[in-house]
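Standup notes
- HV: blocked on the assembly model, inputs below
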Amino acid sequence: MPENTTTVAGAAQTGTGDAAPPSAVGHVRETEVCGIRAFLAAPAATDATATDAAATDAAAPSEGREVSAGLAFRVGTVDETYATHGISHLVEHLALHRQGMTEAHYNGATTSTATVFHVSGTEEEVVAYLNGVCASLRDLPLDRLETEREILRTEASGRSDGPNHALPLWRYGAQGYGLASYTELGSWHLDADAVRDWARTRFTRGNAVLWFTSDTVPGTLDLALPDGEFLPTPAATSALPVTPACVHGGDGVVVADGVVRRSVAATVFADVLGRALYTDLRRTGGYSYTATAAYAPRDAEYATITAYADALPKKQDAVVGGFVDALARLRAGHVEQSELDSVRAKRLKAAESQTREPDALVVSRAMNALTGHESLPPAQWRTELEALTVEDVRDVARAWYATSLLQAPGRGADWAGFTEAPQFSAPESAVTGTRHRSIEDAEWTLVIGDDGVGCNGPGDRVTTVRYADCAAVVAYPDGGRLLTGLDGFRVAVEPTMFANVTQSRIALIDRSVPPAAVVRMPKRDPERIPKPDVPAAASTAATPAGAATAAGARPARRSRRRLAALVVTRILALFLAVFAGLLTLAELTTPDKDYVALVIAWVLAIGAVLLARRLMRPSRRAGGRTRGRAAKS
Amino acid sequence: MPPVDPPSPVPPPAGPQSDPYVTTPALVPLRSAAQAGDWAATRRFLTGLGDDDQAYAVRMLTEIDDTEAYLERAAAENPDDPLARTLVAARYVVVGWNIRTHSRPQYVSRDQFTRFHEWLRRAEELLIGICADHPSYALAWNARLATARGLELGQSEARRRYDRLAAHHPYYFASQRHLLQKLCPKWGGTYESLHEFARTCADAAPPGSLAGALVADAHMEHWLELDEPADGEYIASPEVRDELTEAAARSVLHPDHRPGFWDVTCHSLFAMALSTGGHHAEAAPHFKALGERFDRQPWGFLRGDPESQFVNHRTTALTLTS
């Protein structure tokens, strides 16, 4: 199960702190190295609780010994804005640029809450790596900025999204933890000053932890970094007014997440949930190949538990049904004692095998310290695990369900008690300003006002982005502006798609949005500038591939057949009206008036006008769903 | 017969009868209990029945108007009793369906659909909980087959629900009929899956059980979907006739068959399917079993008054075989 990470790396495994093996946590020693909070793997024989002074820290490097180490900063995507999204990732790339080719295994990773540099090799190699990273952080090779920005964009295009990719944006909006769903807009425009400033204020001594899988650190270590405060993780935002909630997703994937307090019971619930889904959907039903659940700490207090099942399109309705029933069963507390016992045994066994591999413990302790989560003392962890009852698991199941967000294909899941996540902004949020009719669909109007922009359709279908709540404004030289609100709703101001969107209206938007939200993009490929798809334009060519996403919150297009019918009846109405008018004029001048022909002509003309008007109204079926939020720009 | 209050005196049927409380007088005490809001008597009646009769009786009960209140009260007072909760849900389904009516979708308004779905969602929410607590409780799964159809949850979900039920109740006739409906092209199924399901159920069921009537049900549904003259040719074909007579011989005409609440429905299906195909001699045993009783539903599929259709076809069949 992919985590809310922007890069795939070893750091993702650092989130297993709640399952910390019991007997070994004590073998981690906390100390300070170069003014940085540090965690060292103490030899099994030493006093487990020792946090004595740094007396042993400055030992001479011992030749050829293999060690692992890491330096992690409490800064990640959660601290960014949509406009600066990717800035921590950029710093990570730049800091690693000067690392040459070596035998040591090293990497960097940016997660939602941390940026991590880690390395394995001889002590010399590890020291060289860490010293190099810190030297680079002090003085980033900003001449490389342009290149690294491009590498970030390449990396993003090659990355495959996990099945839960869209969940964060629906839960949190286009900010904080929600940015995990979004592209790194920062990779398009961040300049040297912005990146340097980010490094100087976030990549500091006070905002870092160090770990080392040995009981001493070499004296050659030089981790000089700027002073700075520890930055706690920001509070989670919410874009879901009601939970349990559901959203529609693509074929073949049923995925849900929920947020619960970090606890031993919650880790066990995740295992029980995964097994329940596997039993019901794979073993009994044969509807899914993969059916699983995973636990990932989100911040100091909360963890996200994600459940996922795949499905053949023909079987996906059964997967949604089986998913719903499995959740209901756990919520009702129907967990076999044997099931709980076997999960418990598996956890204990994993803990014991980790005891023989103490590296993971040091990482876990360090990462927990970084997010401010207190690692559970070993004895307490075991006691809690052993005391866990079916009722405890049921309570977590209920808490998880109460916050859950389910993405289902096909028919969706509103029938099962999940409330559909908002597809449009609140109608009362609509802004006033100049109105610009959609060239494609007369039912939709773009509004550009002093407070924000909106796209208003029939009924309550209103999408609003207020300038003050703008997460990012993607600005193209051709005048296109894509505004994304903090709540994730989008309005695409495309001069090619709406009537009379003049330079001065675009200038009003540019003046009104927060300057920090503006992302200036290079010239667009003409193929990617959206073009209206209307018969009047005599264009039957398919819309450019990028147009649909570029336009963001757009009404579902009227079906071609409907449009054709509309055009035909309009022409017919016009023709009949003109004919009736001419006939009336002719009759007026004739002494021998034919009233019957006149009445028939007018009845036909009025009938055609009414028919055209009727076709203009939203069709019940063609109304369609508009996705007010989208992940990609 | 369940140990209930003495049945109210029912006059012997005079002429053709389609009122289920007349054709099956054993159901009268259930109606009395429901109309009196007597939960204890309702429960006693229903729990005294076998699976198939119980499902039939529940259907009758939920069609009695204004029973929600006493069923909701019973469910609130007996939170651990799946029967009371299931009856509430099953009643909601009927309330919803009465709003929707049984018309084809194009004749149902948007507002009707909205209210229909609201009732079904209320029912479904209850049923999800009941099935979680009592995974082998047939009446709840049976009601969930109706909600699956009404909420348009897809073929695979309907099948999953049936499979969950069949794991514990392999020959549950009411649910087999529900799934059979879902397998009809009008609900997104195919003729192949429709007939295959009917045959598989009929073959698997013990001799004398009701499942054979599914074969008649499937042929009726197929016939209904076809236009003239294909429909007439279809139902008159010797293949269909042979399938019907074989299925009848293994079910309601089998010596092991025990009379029950579904008999009028099943014999009506066979009699109607065979008569419509012109196989009057083969229909005769079913008319004999029915006597003056008939089910309005299959006979209503023919043009004209169901009762006259029944009487006319019966006369033809019995005259030819007398």
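- HV (later): unblocked. The mean pLDDT of chain A is 82. The radius of gyration of chain A is 30 Å.
- Next: hand off to the docking folks.
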